[in-house]
Amino acid sequence: MSERSYPDPDITMESETYWQAANDGKLLVKRCDSCNEVHFYPRAICPGCMSDNTVWQEASGKGRIYSYSVMRRADPPYAIAYVTLEEGITMLTNIVDADFNALSVDMPVEVTFRDTEGGQALPLFRPAKD
Q1: Do residues 80 and 71 touch, judged by C-beta distance below 8 A?
Q2: pTM
Q3: Residue 87 and residue 69: Cα distance in Å, rounded?
Q4: pLDDT digit string (tens) for 37-91?
């Protein structure tokens, strides 16, 4: 079975560090030094307290499926999911390297990376190895 292709992301000055870290195999999130909340998607202003006192933090890359849906009629089929990271944020992503019939809510997952059509690394998730 062929794997789904992924379009290139729109990289802005605000998200450039995030995408460069992805190319280095790291998943970054933003943390606010004023209210200590972690947030995703990458942005300079904290959505919790509106402070611009935010810093990059490397995420563990581990999380659990909050919700998912398998697109079985697509060619090739794929799964999208909301994954809640250990850091507490929930991100929309794709699940790869998985038996789609075995996916379940609360399944442990870990980050992996795939190249987009233009070669940018894209963080996705796969079932966690023990």
Answers
A1: yes
A2: 0.92
A3: 23
A4: 999 988 889 999 999 999 999 999 999 999 999 999 999 999 999 999 999 999 9
